[in-house]
């Protein structure tokens, strides 16, 4: 894992929290976005824990650069509520999720493991607040996405709606009265058909296309 934050005190805090976990190794520390991109390319960490506001290159731009280079690296954004607009940009840039900087230690550790395993971290209440606040800033891609959504089966579209509400596979399985394995299959098919990396991008797409409206999740 790579820590990317310009504040040494925060990096030290993260090291204290994460250093006690036997399966989480910190391979490097970046003090700005440009350094984060260079170190991600050189060290290929499973996860970059990325601050949003940093010198030289912010976390959104750094995330976009990492994703564009198709590195086997996933980005977990750290933010505060006063930077909500940056987080929307980071999600659209390809981040695998985001957390508030004051998240409890156990949630941070769990999120890192989730992202490292190839899944995405979607905090439903935080994401809902972001999308409610910035829905007017999202483009209307009505002419671009209808064919993609039309390719989904009714069940896949239903699963996408549940994913957009922030539900886990287990919660979706309970809501739809199907097995969790079935839900995983539907999610996989849905992501493939829509050409999406993960659940986070699926959530953003669901809002952008109007499949789910701000305030309805």
Strand content: 5-15%
How much is the radius of gyration in Å? 17 Å
Write the element-wise H/E pattern from the N-terminal end onward: EHEHEHEHEHHHHHHH
What spatial order of strands do you see in the largest sheet? 2-1-3-4-5
Main sheet record = 5 strands, parallel
Q: Could you name the ranges where pLDDT drops below 50 across 5 or more consecutive residues? A: none
Q: Structurally, how many domains make up the residues? A: 2
Report helical residue fraction.
40-55%
Oligomer: single chain
- Classified by CATH, the class of the largest domain is Alpha Beta
Helices and strands: which structural class? alpha/beta
Which SSEs are present, and which pair or pack?
Elements lengths: L1 E3 L3 H11 L9 E3 L2 H11 L3 E5 L7 H10 L5 E6 L4 H10 L4 E3 L4 H12 L7 H11 L11 H5 L3 H11 L4 H8 L3 H15 L4 H10 L9
Parallel strand pairs: 1-2, 1-3, 3-4, 4-5
Helix pairs in contact: 2-3, 3-4, 4-6, 8-10, 8-11, 9-10
